[in-house]
Amino acid sequence: MDLLDDMRIFVNAVEAMSFTGAATKLGLSKQFVSRRIASLEQSLGARLLLRTTRRLAVTDLGRIYYERARRILEDVEAANLAVSSQGERPRGNLRVSAPMSFGTMFLGSVIPSFLSTYPDVSIELELNDRTVDIIGEGYDAAVRIGALADSSLIARNIAPMRMVTCASPRYLEAHGTPETPEALREHALLPYGHSQRVTWTYQRDGHALDIPVSGRLRVNNGELARDAAVAGLGITLLPVFIVAPALLNGRLVTVLDAFAPPEAAIHVVYPQHRQASLVIRAFADFLAAACGVAGARW
């Protein structure tokens, strides 16, 4: 193998923070990855990585080498794309993370169409409602819904997204309709979130209004919260795309519309060093177009 190959292995090991992650991403064995990085360190006369039984740590020299090697690989990729047919046709494997409900309700129909359009692309899609560490866990891109945490990731806005507060007509007939966000404290609530403390955000007179919520049932999956609301167990706050069918057929109705939280967005996020990737760009473009066609759902 040449120096560029060893650089590529090293960069992937740093981004995955494990030999196993780099090996999986590159289609190599863990032992081969370990040997090539050891050979690279020997040729450089410097320790780049510190191995422990649980994970890798990058030395100061390793961090400097990683930044330089990453830029070199990006330049090489850009040069290749500029003069080859690959620059016209996305190809390669794409490892994507997406929220569970968004994946089952929307990506199930979009991904087959995307793969038919780009026959040289393969996708490894993992659905998980937690916020994954894209670089550390070896993903190429992820779909994120709602407010984005500050990070070094590139974010492509692919669709607007609204949150609605809703309940079944049967629940509202039995317990009344809340007229203000504060009135939610008198109702059975169905929090959707990943932490023990869930806050629903509304707005009044242009200012954010945070309402801490709790309930007998708290779930980390929007479809379960929706189904519980349809069953009359209480009021929930969910993205429109999860509850749109139930709203259309009357199984759910919205409340507190005058206090609706600000419109958020659905994003495709990816590491900065993947900006030149045609396959990521094609995936984000395709998803944005599909979301545009299904615009009323958001």
Automatic annotation (TrEMBL):
Which UniProt keywords are present, listed alphabetically? DNA-binding, Transcription, Transcription regulation
Cross-referenced CDD domains: PBP2_CrgA_like (cd08422)
Q: Which GO terms describe its biological process?
A: DNA-templated transcription
HTH lysR-type domain mapped to chain residues:
1-59
Q: Name one Pfam family in it.
A: HTH_1
Recorded hits in InterPro entries, A to Z, give:
LysR-type_TF_proteobact-type, LysR_HTH_N, LysR_subst-bd, WH-like_DNA-bd_sf, WH_DNA-bd_sf
Concerning Gene3D superfamilies, the annotation shows: 3.40.190.290, Winged helix-like DNA-binding domain superfamily/Winged helix DNA-binding domain
- For whether the record's keyword set contains Ribonucleoprotein, the answer is no
This entry's Gene Ontology molecular function terms read: DNA-binding transcription factor activity; sequence-specific DNA binding
| Family of this protein | Belongs to the LysR transcriptional regulatory family.
The record's annotation in PANTHER family points to: HTH-TYPE TRANSCRIPTIONAL ACTIVATOR TTDR-RELATED, HTH-TYPE TRANSCRIPTIONAL REGULATOR
Could you tell me what this protein is called?
Answer: LysR family transcriptional regulator
Instruction: Give the organism, scientific name.
Output: Pandoraea nosoerga
List the lineage, top down: Bacteria, Pseudomonadati, Pseudomonadota, Betaproteobacteria, Burkholderiales
